[in-house]
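Hi everyone,

Forwarding the result from last night's run.
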Amino acid sequence: MGKVQIVGKRGANGSGKGADGKVGASAVATIADDDETGTAIATGGQGGRGAAGGDGGKGGSARAGAVVDGIFPAAIAYASATATGGLGGNGGAGGNGGDGGAVTGARAVSTNRAADGLAQAGAYGIGGDGGAGNGKGAHGGNGGFASGVFASATILSPGEVLATAYQIGGNGGAGRGGANGGNGAESRLVNGVGGSAGGRGGVGTYEQYAIGGNGGASEGGTAGAAGNASVRLAMYDMAQAHPGEKVQSASVAQGGDGGDALADTAGAGGVGATGGSADASVQVSASTMVIFSVANGGKGGNGVAGGGRGGDGAARVVGNQGTEPVTVNAVVEAGAGGDALNKGNGGDGGRALYSQAEAQGAGFVASAVVDTRGGDGGVGVGTGSHGGNGTDAGPAYAYAVNTRYASGSANAYVDLRAGNGGAGLNGADGGNGGRAIVTDMPRAVSRGSIGLDQFGYGGNGGSAVEGGNGGDGGEMRSTLSFDVDRVSPYAQSTSLRVGGFGGNGGAGSGSNKAAGKAGNATGVASVTGTTSVDTLVNTFAGAGGEAADGAKVAAGGNASSTGSATSRSGIAVAEGAAYGGVGGALVGTGVGTGVAGKGGSASGSSTATGGTNAIASIQAYAGAGGDAYGAGARGGAGGTVGRLTAVAEGNGIVASRVSAVGGDGGDGYQGAHGGAGAGVTLRNVGVGVAHGGALELSQIAGAGAGGSSEGGQAARGANASSQLTYDESTLATPSKTLTLSVGAAGGAGGDQLGDSGSGANGGTGAASGAFGGHGGGTLTGTVTAYGGNGGNGPVVGLGGAATATGKATGDVVFLDSIATAGSGRLSGQATAVAEATATSGQVDAHAIARGNGALASVSGEVEAALSGHALVAASAGIGGTVPSPTKTGAGITVQGDPNAAGLAAIYARNDAIEGAFAKDSEAVATAIIESRNPGGAELGTVTSTFQIRVNVGALDAMGETTLGMFNGHALGKGFDTLAFTVVAGDEDDYFNPVDEVTLLSQRFGDAKAADAYFADHVIDLGNLLAQTNRVGTLVLTVTMTTTGSGSGNGYAASLLLGDIGDSGVDPVFGGDTGPFAVSGGTADDHLVPSWVTSPVQAHAADYWLA
């Protein structure tokens, strides 16, 4: 191991008035060794201090060199050379500082001649810092320049090499007592690294850094300028005698920071200096490569009167002739603006001048990546001033070429970020965020796959929290179009990914002030070609700025996503989503009756035209309203959903999918009210044509939730409506299969967070579908509706109603209508209707009401086989009156926790049921079942199911579970068979599962026997709580199935299901009265009499557990 270290002698101080300090001595250190390690260190001598009126001496220069060459099996050959220029001497009173010493060379060369070894070289050249100047008219010394820095690492057999070079300009000296600051030295590094990795299997890593010196600070004078930095690399590894298999390289240029402008003794001072610029340019030819070209602008200097502008940046990288994977990266980060130290504006951010990446290869992947960012603004101080503005995202270009055949891919990615606005203090306004406007920046050519990504990010506005206007968030707009056949006609597939984020508005405070506006977000992607193509567009709008102490609040930004994909012979997919921004919050004093910011809107469209399959999907999520604080204020309204369309056309699998969600209302705290959620209405926004293929249409609407409130009024959930009509009767070539779905979900009511008051009611959900004209194929339709849950609170809000209505015609039809009411103090009413005309298939209506306590839910479902026309209907609710029969089609109506008046009417006509239930019962719910055959002469089957779910852990106690049956009667000419069953099961008890058990099963062959059975008949199902463990969800299912022919024939019966126990036992399911009545009819295999004590009864107890 060899090491040489030389330190130059310090220059003598000036002696006598006006005498300058002497120059520091130069230092030269070199070593050449065949040992494993050689280190050379040279440090120039410091310049002498000047006497009064004299200048400081210049720092001494430095040069270092190290060469290591030998055979080091399985070891490291390491050469290191470090040269540091001497410090400039400080000037005497009224004198200038001495310049820093220069670096005239730092060269490290390492060669390892052994196999499987490592060669490493590091060269470091650091210019000396300038000395301080003293007094007005003087200046600090300039930083010393560094040059001649080079590191080379070579291995003759395949192995690893690492070459690192740092070239750093010296910092400018400080200016004291009114002197100007010295300038930082620039740094220009060209081909500062080299070497080779010894053949196939070898890996070479080459890193070089050019760093400009910082400008010197000044007390009352002019701040020193920053040093600029540039780095260049041209490396042709494949031309080496022993080229490696892979090259990894990073070339980084870092501009120096601008000097600070500090206050003099009187408090006066200037503006900070501009940050140094950075420029990086790289070109590499290698088999496999990962290359970075990086440019970072320097920060602007801080200043008493304002901050300096940030330094600019530009980067370019080219990687070519690769035979294996190639990835090149151009990275630019412009410098941030400096801060104002007293009253003044913050410095604007530096500019991202350009960034360019080009990749060319013949391997599996060729990728060009651009990542660039505009500079952030600095902090502004004082009324009338503002924070620095963030700069716009600069121009960029990414280009990838892959000449490999169909297995190769070419990817070009562009990611542009605008700078953020600087904050405003002491009455200053916040700076505006920069814009990100991105248009057609990535391009690629390939015989295989192509991937193009283009994203933009608007800068956030600066906040002004001490009495000022907030800065506006920057807009994001990303537009990308690509014609595959024109640019890359042999590509097998092409994917476009587009989108980004709008900037958030900055907070504003004080009367007559305003919060910053949110940045909108717009994304547009379009691709056409012969082969398979797809687009994905996702946009996120910025949030509105917060308003404090009487400032005007800002709404959330608007988002829009538009995608189009056209393939002449392949698959086309266009997908997108848009997210509106959140409204600004309303806080602080003086809010009065103010309203927080409204949420931003969301809109979009997707269009897919495919030679085979085509899928178009668009989703819109409007922004939530902002929160409000203070009595009398109100949360912001939720944002609305704008125009939406999804159009798909193809010749195979074709799908059009649309979903939209309105914005939630903002919450209210400290006595503020909740904001209104936004309703959503969709009508036929999806279009699809399959030309004889398989067609799917989906349309879903979701309303926004109402805002919660702490001591004010919570807001009601909004309503949602979705209507879809589709008719293929006019099409020359109808679809082979149709899958159609439409849904709507009402918003939840806001919670009451205070100690008194009520949660708000849930919104309604209404979905309807009319599907017709489909011949020769299968139609599957689903209509789904959800009511919003009532808000929680000391008093729980009411659940919202849900209505699902479906109608279809065709050859083979499967139609489901499902309605789920919202839970609450009382549930909403769930109504589901399904009507169809077809030669075969099935219709299903399912209604579900959700409880808010021990009674988790009640539901009714009717299924009917199709052989002509059929109409089935189901209704369910919790709380309220005993239901009436539908008297149309086959139906079931279920009501949990019915009122006392309806139960009294049942008792008046049924003595046995009255005796069992009226004086000592905890009842559950009521229901009516009407099992009408929908078909004509053919045999039809109708199955009606009533189901109840109980939160077992919420039960207090339970007696004998009892079933009352009454009012059984034939419909029309009756039935052929009727089956009736009662089954208990456990849904959620994972650790202690209980098998499903049949409590009751009965079958009938004629109406007379059924009438006798369903006439004021009571059956004890046993104490189902005896062997339970009080966890999970207990499910009790009652099923009636009838078969028969002739339209309108069937059976109806009524049931009452409840609990009989001691009068002191609490109600099992809650509610005022509790019995559960079911009307309708159906039966099953055998009866387990109540007087038989059997394992069946014991097992049944496991289900009602607790």
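The chain has four domains: 1-15+24-236, 288-294+308-519, 554-581+593-671+692-704, 778-790+798-1101.

Cheers,
N.
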